[in-house]
Write a structure and sequence with these properties.
- The protein is of the alpha/beta class.
- The chain has three domains: about 20-50; about 60-130, Ubiquitin-like (UB roll); about 130-255, Rossmann fold.
- About 30% of the residues lie in helices and about 25% in strands.
- The chain is built from six helices and twelve strands.
- The strands form three sheets. A six-stranded mixed β-sheet has the order 7-8-9-10-11-12. A three-stranded mixed β-sheet has the order 1-3-2. Strands 4-5-6 form a three-stranded antiparallel β-sheet.
- A hairpin with a 4-residue loop joins strand 5 (about 140-145) and strand 6 (about 150-155).
- The longest helix has about 40 residues, at about 20-55.
- It is elongated.
- It starts with 17 loop residues before the first helix and ends with a strand.
């Protein structure tokens, strides 16, 4: 017969196999080592990046000088001002492309190349436009290039450039005349064909060149300009001083003088 107290039975403890326990410990240690390596790598990147940032933005790597090359009608000071690059600027912040675009907005500048030369030099190389003709504006003559861009306003008409006639309105310097066909033709004239042409007129009938000699060259369409001019010069040479008022070279292989 059992006693009045209930006997308490102890549940046998289940011990983990020592090999499994060692495996768990090894896995946890490996995970800890991986986390430590990642943490150290992140710290190295942050510290290294911060050090590089400080070095690049430090006074040791700022703009010490700006060198400008290729200017004739534009001053180096105008180029530097347009670039918005100043001595003391951090070299890392110099935007080559944006600076070049700002410089190319200057009237005479056709293209600009901006290059950083470490540790502290910015070199700007400019290619300027070529004057092709002049137009009469309300405030006096204005010089244009072959695209019709207004390059400058001058006191006197250039004697070595033809005038593009019948331009109703001349826009501000840096803008483009419209229509610009006469300027396009002027840009194709070379040598004496340019200096010997007094004016260029464009109409529905074509393009006419008025020479300094008083002869009119009728080009017809504004194509193969120099081929037509050479044909007209050959005709005038063959006439050997005979007085003519015009040479029509709309078809350069079949010129007509009158």
């Amino acid at each position: 017969m059992s006693g009045s107290g209930t006997a308490t039975r102890e549940r046998p403890s289940k011990e983990v196999d020592p090999r499994i326990r060692e495996r768990w410990i090894a896995v946890r240690r490996a995970e800890g080592r991986r986390r430590l390596r990642v943490l150290l790598l992140v710290l190295a990147v942050v510290v290294g990046g911060g050090a590089a940032w400080v070095a690049l933005a430090s006074p040791l790597l700022d703009v010490d000088r700006v060198i400008v090359r290729g200017t004739v009608h534009t001053t180096p000071e105008q180029v530097t001002s347009a670039s918005q690059i100043s001595r003391g600027d951090a070299m890392i912040w110099v935007d080559d492309g944006a600076a070049a675009s700002r410089i190319e907005a200057l009237p005479w500048v056709r293209s600009a190349h901006v290059a950083r030369e470490w540790p502290g030099t910015v070199r700007i190389t400019v290619t300027e436009r070529t004057a092709a003709a002049w137009v009469q504006s309300g405030t006096g003559p204005a010089i244009v290039d072959a695209t019709g861009r207004v390059l400058d306003r001058v006191a006197d008409a250039p004697v070595d450039l033809p005038q593009v006639a019948d331009v109703a309105r001349v826009p501000p310097v840096g803008a483009t005349i419209s229509p610009a066909l006469g300027a396009h033709v002027a840009g194709r004239l070379l040598g004496y064909a340019r200096t010997g042409t007094r004016s260029i007129a464009v109409s529905d009938h074509g393009v006419n060149l008025s020479l300094v000699s008083g002869v009119e060259i009728r080009l017809g369409s504004p194509t193969a300009v120099m081929t037509k001019v050479r044909a007209a010069v050959a005709v005038l040479g063959a006439l050997d001083g005979q007085a003519v008022s015009y040479v029509d070279v709309a078809v350069p292989s079949n010129p007509v003088a009158g």
